[in-house]
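call fold(seq) -> tokens
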Amino acid sequence: MRIPGKRVKRTRLVRTDRFIVAVDVEAVIPEEDPSETCYESEVVDFLREVEERAKRGDTAWLRQHGKVYEAVDAA
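ret:
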């Protein structure tokens, strides 16, 4: 079910120990309560998948869906 309201693009950062992945997602500003944006279930599932793939190190898939930043050891 789609939430009625204005759709806006947002960049979400998904963080793990090794990676930060910046992905663009669609947020909704609900008509009934415009004080806070929310995400539909498909977006939440996508963000969970991004996190799981980042934990597994699936950089090929991550690069197809967003910008990938990898932690490096300090010298």
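The chain has a mean pLDDT of 94.
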